[in-house]
Amino acid sequence: MKIPSWRNYYRDLRFDNIATEKYRHILLLAYWPVFGFLFWFAEAVYPVKKYIVVSSVVDSMIPFCELFVLPYVLWYFYLIGIHVYTFFNDVDAFKKLMKYIIITYSVTLVIYYLFPTCQLLRPAVFERDNVLTQFMSGFYAFDTNTNVCPSLHVIGSVAVMHTAWNTKGLESTKCKAAFAVTTFLISISTVFLKQHSVIDMIVALPICMIAYRLCFVEGEKHSTKSFSKRIKEKFV
């Protein structure tokens, strides 16, 4: 029976060699609990005298639509899924994904601390009563309307798309299109559920573009240059 390649890759992993060049990418996952703590601190502990209210004329033109609960919740599986897939199938893509996350989420945290924002877009009463509006009612109670700009939902979904486009096994045109459509639906779900303003989406995009260039465009150039240099050293 053929052993999957990821098992071959990780079969020698032990606690005492996790910091070696082959396995140190695993340590990048430590960023997530650090981010979680700092985000919680910003939400629950950090003293804020006054929040900046984020809104635009466009927001009032966008109706609340509970159907967007589906892509909104999909985001959690979307983000976790790309971590799991790259971790086991394309370590280089996993490293770039984590670098992307560290850059974008850290920048977002700095913005949250320096310019704390909130939104007042949530409907007081839902026009319809169904399982999706009931879910959103509970979600509103759980999720605060503070620290919204830029949108982490948008940043996270774009991070997944950019990584998938540069991951082994996901390079086909159909796969790229599927990730693009999914990212678009998740992003616009934030405004249709009144979780974010359009402004939150717009501010998130340049942060993602900069991270993409740093992690995938410049990273690829550096990787190619290093490979060429190794070839010359070996044969010249």
3D architecture notes:
This protein has 236 residues and is mostly helical. It has one domain (10-235). The chain is 65% helix and 2% strand. It has a two-stranded parallel sheet. Helix 4 crosses helix 8 and helix 5 (91-114) runs antiparallel to helix 9 (198-235). The N and C termini lie far apart (42 Å).
Percent in helix? 55-70%
The figure for the number of domains is: 1
Q: What is the β-strand count? A: 2
- Principal-axes geometry comes out as globular
* Residue runs with pLDDT of under 50 for 5 or more positions: 224-228, 230-236
Q: Alpha-carbon distance between the termini?
A: 42 Å
Tell me about the largest β-sheet: 2 strands, parallel
Radius of gyration: 20 Å
Order of helices and strands: HHEHHHEHHHH
Biggest sheet, strands in spatial order? 1-2
What structural category do the secondary elements indicate? mainly alpha
Estimate the mean pLDDT confidence: 90
In short:
By secondary structure, the chain is mostly helical. It contains 9 helices and 2 strands, in the order H-H-E-H-H-H-E-H-H-H-H. Strands 1-2 form a two-stranded parallel sheet.
